[in-house]
Design goal:
single chain, 171 residues, alpha/beta, four-stranded mixed beta sheet, 7 helices
């Protein structure tokens, strides 16, 4: 499944070649296996992901699915997801559970995307000053082995896609 494009995944889900739950499990397993090496994910929550995948499968079965229904998405850790740990890459917020969802997350949910994880955040707030770096959660380690990617706030989204650890990433 991980070698399929978004269009191919969408068609496969619509044609019931596999379920959204199976697709989510595939990406959860891949993300879990890769994360010790690339450190791209702050939070993986299989229970929440699979609940969303089951809801996506129900939408597909009812004929109410859009083209993105059932596709896994990883959100940058700056976007709150109701009930998910959202740290903004900061130790100060490392136990913060979002009480609401950001607009981008809501729109992804409305489109039927399945939240897979939250992604490490790299940026000015954690990289500019040494004191802030000490207060930040561990950075993405994939950068050093992925020479085509710059060290920027968008690197995590690109790296997780390049490592085929997610299909779509926000941020």
């Amino acid at each position: 499944m991980i070698e399929l494009s978004l269009t191919e995944l969408s068609r496969a889900l619509a044609g019931r070649r596999f379920s959204s739950v199976e697709l989510a499990q595939c990406y959860l397993q891949r993300a879990g296996a890769l994360n010790p090496d690339i450190n791209a994910f702050i939070t993986l929550d299989a229970e929440k992901t699979l609940a969303q995948a089951r809801a996506a499968d129900a939408r597909i079965a009812a004929g109410e699915a859009g083209p993105l229904t059932g596709i896994p998405v990883a959100h940058k850790d700056i976007f709150c997801q109701d009930g998910w740990r959202t740290t903004c890459g900061s130790r100060m917020l490392e136990n913060f559970i979002a009480p609401y969802s950001a607009t981008v997350v809501e729109r992804c949910n409305q489109a039927g995307l399945v939240s897979l994880a939250t992604l490490v955040r790299i940026g000015v707030a954690t990289s500019m000053y040494p004191a802030r770096r000490a207060a930040a959660l561990p950075p993405l380690t994939a950068i050093s082995s992925c020479s085509v990617l710059p060290n920027s706030a968008h690197t995590v989204s690109a790296a997780t896609s390049a490592y085929v650890a997610t299909t779509i990433a926000t941020g």
